[in-house]
Predict the 3D structure of the following.
Amino acid sequence: MQIDTTGFFEALAAEMNAHPDRYRLYGEADMDPVLVMRRPDGDFRVRLHFAELRCEDITEVDESETPLSDFQLDGDLEAWEGMFGDIRANGSATGLWTINSLALMGDKIVVAGNDPMGTDKFSRFNQTLQEFLDGAARLDRAATAS
Amino acid sequence: MTETASTDTAYPGLPAESPMGAPLDWAWLRGAKSEWGVHPKPSPRGLTLMDIATGTYADVPDAPRDRSMAPRGCDVDTDTPDMGYILNGKTDMWSDNVMELYEEAVARQWSATRDIPWGDLQELPSDVEHAMCQLCTVLCEVEMIAADLPAKWMWRMNHDFIEAKMFLCTQINDEARHAEVFRKRALANGGGLLLSRSGPTSLLRTIIEAKTYTQATALMHLLGEGLVLDIFRMGELIAPTDVEKRIFRMCMQDEARHVAYGTMHLRYAVEHDPDVAEEIHEALDHGETVLTDFATAPDISTALAVLLARGTEDVETKGFPLLMELNKKQFTSYLARCERAGVSRLERTKIPLDLLGIDPATIRTAAA
C-alpha cells in the first residue's frame, strides 16, 4: 500500500484499535502529531489523533494546519519509505530506522513543534507511536494471509 | 455563585455530647464554608485531576494563606499548626502541565520485573557485556538523584501545590524503577556492577546541594535528567539486544516526562518572577562545568564508545566518532531545552560550543 495516503494511515489506525492489548504495556497516550512527507509534486501531511489506547482520527491537513499539532515529524517521502521498508522487512523498526533514532540523528526525519509541551510528547509517547508505525508489518502479514 | 458545604442550622437536634459525656462538634456537617456540589464530569478515561479542577477547587493560589497539610479548598481552622514550609509561592514549583503529567505518569507505569523480556538475554562478547555493565553501574548511581532531590524538597513545599507534589512522587517511583532495572540488567547476564568514580558523584553532589529548589530543578531536570534522557534516546544505537532496547525505550518515556515538568516549571517561574532567571543561570554556570566533566568522564565515554562500536575492535574508528556526534546532540538538546524554559544559555554557556561544532543560531531558530 502506498504510504502517502490517508488510506494507509486509516489501516494502521484500524490495526491499532483492533489490538489494544498490544498498547496496554505502554499505557494511555494523548497526542496529535502531524507526519509530513515531502514530495516533488506537493507534500503529504497527515494528522493522527491518539486518545487512550486508540488512534481516533486520521486527517489529511494542509500547511496552515500543521502548527496546530503537538509536533511534526518531517522528512522526504524517500526517508519515510525507508522507515516503513525496514518495518516491513523486520517486523518492527530496527536500529537507525526507529522513529526515535531518526529524530535523534535528524538527517532524514526531524521532529519539530511550536509548543514545548506538545513537542516533548514525542519522547513521552514515543513507544506508542513506534508500535503504531510498526503496524505496517502486521498489515502486510494480514494481507499475505488473506 | 458557589454553594457551601452546609449551614449552621442544618440537621437540628443532634446531640451536644457523646454517650461518654464528651462534647461533640458537628461543624463538618453544618458549618463548613468550603464549596459543595461541584459535580465534576469524568472524561472518557475516568475522573482525572483536570476534571476535578473545577469551581474553587481549581484555584491554585500564587501565595497560599495557610501552611498546613489541609487539602486545598477545604475550610481550614485558623489555629492549624504551621508545617514549616519554605516553598510557599506558586512560582517555586508549579508547572502548567503538572496535572496532565501526573495522570500520564499513573497511566504509563511499567514493571521492571514483568515488562522486560529477561528470558531473551543472550550471552554477549566479554567486552560488550563489560561495557553494558559499566553503563548500568553509572545509571544505577545517577538515577536515584532524581528521587533523592525531590524527596529533599517536597516536605518543604506548601501543601496547596499538591498536584506538583503528587507528580514528584511519581518521579520518585519512576527513578526507583530505573535504578531497579539497571541493577537487574547489570547482574542478569553473567556480569555485575563495575566501577564508580568521582565524576558522577560530583555532579550528584552539585545537584543535591543546590541552595534553592528552582536551582536544584534546573540542575536536575534540565542538566542531569536531560543528559540521561539523551543517553536513553541513543538506546537503539547502544543496546546490544532487544532486552536492553526495551529497557532504554521504557526509561526514555519516563525521563521525558520528568524533563517536561522541569522545563515547564522553570518557564513558569521565569515568566512570573523574572528575577529568578539569574538564580537559575548561576546554578547552570557551575552545573555545566560539572556536566561536561560527567559527560566526558572516562568510565562513561569509553563504555558508550564500545557499545556504539559493538566491541573494542572498532572503538577508535566507529565508537568514538559516533559518540562525539551524539555528545554534540546531547549538548544541543540541553541548550534547546534552556531556550524553551526561558533561560537562554547561548550567550553564557560554559560548554565549548566551537569545539563541539554547535551553532547557536541553529538552536535559536529551532527553539523559536
